[in-house]
């Protein structure tokens, strides 16, 4: 390896480590920076009102002129969803396979179209020069077509990032994972492997997507009424299999839900989704007039999302499609952790209507897109890396990956457990942590990017728990001090006030007490008076109700 | 059967149907009412700020003088947790087995002690007269000792309610489920079976609790440092097995977490938990000075509850017990749907510290306490009821139970799928739905029981999403109209205001516009002015931010 000036390669995860979501990896060597992916993450429950979370890219903005390109592994939201916010700030070339870029461009065009000159379609196996790096994509199998991992040939050695993958020996589109290439690189020598660790806690191997096709077919054949299948919009393989099965048994297909329509249209346009007959797709406006036993509806809503099409059908609030008794609803996805209750609600609504509901528990209508333990071992054995860096996982998954590494003879020092902003420094024979870079989360709420932070969220949490109480009073500005009007008490989200007359009277008395104690002073300290009102009333309401609403004193003076 | 005046037996679920939680069943025949259980339910996510949910017992309050008694199946929160709120309103005799009543009394004494004269310990197999009913408890196996189901011999026939059960042929305490009694009643003739349907979607049979003991023992033997085991406090069998295993390998035991301490103390006191050696329990104050390899900590927090002991240990905020690298944490429970993310967080914190975490995925450290499909079939076959009523389940579980019934030859008309407040009327040869009774949920928030309803919750949801904006202005009361002070804008939970000067200026202008349009009228309509300010400002803020904070106009006039 060219070891000029003993420079080191830095690997910096700005997203996707210690968490599932918002993947963004940075590779840096002297004047060259290469970025992989730019995803979103869906907000945790306590991030009230937040729509999306993207990585903090301050470090990239500061080093923009050194960035040679952004390479994308595949078209899932947690890998491309942040790009509409990230790319306009960086204005850098982007690289990806055809379907991936098709999905990215559909997404960018909704917000700001990105200059065509910066968008580069790549083919796996064709190396691309990006500063000092030679970047080469290799095919992986995953729950979306055209997914790749990347090899970066760097001055200190080759580094491989798998991207999201499973080892599916019978992929729906016939494109196998390029295990041969991984083995060849392994023979040449690989410095470090960054590997998908999502399923590192799961023993054995994942099941091929092909099995889902067989199972769907069996269920479809049994269906009496309409079939409605909910899945992730991006699972083009599964959608292809559902379309094939429906076509075979003489059903037409209606695609509903915005993201499902987007992905299906893009995939058909680019040739990744093949329709077995012409005119097999029908618009949702025609569903009402079709015989139910001649119909398959492909829909979003597999996660019970309140506004998704299936959820609206289940609650009878979809404009065009009704679920009827005897319809079969196939939930061809598992709930992402945190969504179990929402999904359960949808299922209950469907049973209430009298539909038959098919879930993963009743047969393999969903399989994971991520590698289990034995697949991870395979990739490690093929690439024979000197060092291991688990990526795409929470701490538990990183720890699970470390155990796998240990079982293959790696010692703790050879495995880097990173956090957001960690800088892993690699030289041909050493891996160590360097100085951390700025990293974290940026919250998106409505049109606001980053204007909702810790304090605003804390306030929302308090408001969510116990509501707000506004205290209004007008006081004379100068002596003799007196209360000119009020105090009045307005509350929202606190208690059903009509039943709380005594509580309000007590609250008013408490406020008057705080005001009169200030009147005794030579000069009214308005700031102190407000905080006295707040403290005293808060204590009073806690004693009476065991609740702590937010108290906002509004004082006017004349 | 005595069919005088052709009266019917009514079965009315006031809780526990169409939902998991707050079980409460009512049996009514002419002047006799018998109630079974009075549980709580933990609030859904959208019930912001709500602590607990209990059944609406308006119907029982209105018919109080006809209630002959309340019978309790077992000591789980979803069967007894509502009693501190329900019993003071009814003042009726209660019946239950010894441990169950011990747990109920511990709970009642925290709030209001219940008159001893109304509390009756019963033995399975001893019939109790309650109005026209002859009530007899029979042993079931479940994840807490001393659990029973009830048979009610009524003028129209025998009705059996299983309570929560599984068929465990090797129960830890040696008390088998009384299948013989069920068979005998089946021979005599059973009118209806109300059956636990929680696991009706799961094929096969549940695994015996005994297996958990074996698996725990294996893990415990492997542990190098402290062992910390988190489980439901009420799972006395599992706690017994953990204590036995710890004792065998020479570890002392520390019990932490309020509910765990309560249950363990009550169980030891009443003889349901047996300590294999004296002085095997140590107080948490001594944990710090013990060798970690000589210690087992039994703790609450298996659901990731933010304030539970394990959660505090994992975030290093427990006063006396620290998790150290090399400690083993056994999660001897599965997350209740909805708690997956919280549990995942705790697990990640534990890995971060460097602890080994053992979950159900790595070995049978948890088994369900509810009957799977084959066990449900067994109970139906033994009791041979004329009619089936699934209880203790959401709609999906009731539908699953119906499928089981169908597989045994029951037709839809023989299976009643109830909702809260349904009245199922039974005569010796007929089951039909009668007039519904008042039923639903009562929310408990702090000291308030029922004062937080739909409007308050809607307000909390809006506040949680986008915060609150208070608009304050003082106007002259009469002509010439002018703005004496303001408008001022105060917001909380909306946006980080320091960066929003332009937004605030725009908002003020918008409010001034609304006010001045009112000034043009002959007389200011204060109500209309407030709603104009609200509508116009809401529109303005939506356009600028895509958020809808709650807007509270406060207008003073002089």
Written overview of the protein:
2 copies of one chain form a homodimer. By secondary structure, chain A is an alpha/beta fold. Chain A has helices at residues 58-62, 77-80, 83-90, 98-111, 179-188, 209-222, 236-248, 258-269, 309-314, 340-353, 373-383, 395-407, 454-466, 501-519, 526-545, and strands at 9-15, 24-29, 32-36, 52-55, 67-71, 94-96, 119-121, 128-130, 133-139, 148-154, 157-161, 190-196, 227-230, 252-256, 295-299, 328-331, 356-358, 385-391, 424-427, 430-433, 441-445, 448-449, 468-475, 483-492, 550-557. In chain A, the strands form 5 sheets. In chain A, strands 7-6-5-3-2-1-19-20 form an 8-stranded mixed beta sheet. The model of chain A has no long low-confidence stretch (mean pLDDT 93). At the A-B interface, α10, α12, α13, β23 and β24 of A face α10, α12, α13, β23 and β24 of B.
């Amino acid at each position: 390896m060219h070891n000029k000036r003993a420079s080191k390669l830095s690997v910096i995860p700005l997203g996707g480590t210690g968490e599932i979501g918002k993947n963004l990896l940075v590779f840096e060597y002297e004047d060259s920076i290469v970025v992989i992916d730019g995803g979103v993450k869906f907000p945790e429950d306590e991030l009230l009102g937040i729509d999306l979370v993207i990585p903090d890219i301050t470090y990239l903005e500061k080093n923009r002129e050194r960035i040679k390109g952004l390479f994308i592994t595949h078209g899932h939201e947690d890998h491309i969803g942040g790009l509409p916010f990230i790319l306009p700030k960086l204005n850098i070339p982007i690289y990806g396979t055809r379907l991936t870029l098709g999905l990215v461009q559909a997404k960018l065009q909704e917000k700001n179209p990105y200059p065509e000159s910066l968008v580069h379609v790549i083919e796996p196996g064709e190396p691309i020069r990006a500063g000092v790096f030679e970047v080469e994509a290799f095919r992986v199998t995953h729950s979306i077509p055209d997914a790749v991992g990347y090899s970066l040939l760097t001055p200190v050695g080759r580094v491989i990032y798998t991207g999201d993958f499973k080892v599916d020996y019978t992929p729906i589109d016939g494109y196998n994972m390029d295990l041969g290439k991984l083995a060849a690189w392994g023979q040449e020598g690989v410095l470090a492997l960054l590997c998908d660790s999502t399923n590192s806690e799961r023993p054995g191997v994942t099941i091929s997507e092909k099995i889902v096709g067989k199972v769907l077919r069996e269920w479809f054949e049994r269906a009496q009424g309409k079939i409605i299948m909910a899945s992730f919009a991006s699972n083009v393989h599964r959608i292809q299999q559902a379309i094939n099965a429906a076509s075979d048994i003489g059903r037409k297909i209606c695609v509903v839900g915005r993201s499902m329509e987007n992905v299906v249209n893009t995939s058909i346009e680019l040739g990744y989704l093949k329709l077995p007959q012409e005119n097999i797709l029908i618009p949702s406006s025609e569903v009402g007039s079709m015989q139910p036993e001649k119909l398959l509806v492909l829909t979003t809503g597999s996660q019970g999302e309140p506004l998704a099409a299936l959820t609206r059908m289940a609650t009878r609030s979809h404009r065009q499609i009704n679920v009827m008794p005897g319809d079969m609803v196939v939930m061809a996805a598992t709930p992402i952790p945190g969504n179990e209750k929402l999904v359960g609600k949808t299922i209950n609504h469907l049973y209430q209507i009298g539909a038959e509901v098919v879930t993963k528990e009743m047969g393999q209508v969903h399989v994971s897109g991520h590698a289990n333990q034995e697949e991870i071992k395979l990739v490690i054995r093929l690439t024979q890396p000197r060092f291991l860096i688990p990526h795409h996982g929470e701490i538990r998954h990183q720890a699970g990956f470390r155990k796998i590494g240990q079982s293959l003879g790696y010692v703790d020092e050879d495995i880097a457990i990173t956090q957001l902003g960690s800088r892993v420094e690699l030289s041909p024979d050493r891996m160590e942590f360097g100085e951390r870079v700025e990293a974290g989360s940026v919250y998106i709420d409505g049109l606001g990017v980053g204007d909702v932070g810790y304090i605003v969220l804390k306030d929302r949490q308090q408001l969510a728990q116990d509501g707000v109480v506004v205290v209004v009073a007008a006081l004379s500005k100068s002596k003799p001090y007196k209360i000119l009007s009020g105090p009045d008490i307005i509350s929202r989200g606190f208690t059903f006030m009509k039943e709380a007359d005594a509580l309000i009277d007590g609250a008013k008395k408490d406020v008057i007490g705080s005001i009169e104690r200030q009147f005794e002073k030579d000069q009214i300290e308005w700031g102190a008076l407000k905080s006295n009102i707040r403290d005293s009333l808060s204590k009073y309401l806690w004693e009476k109700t065991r609740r702590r609403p937010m108290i906002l004193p509004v004082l006017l003076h004349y």
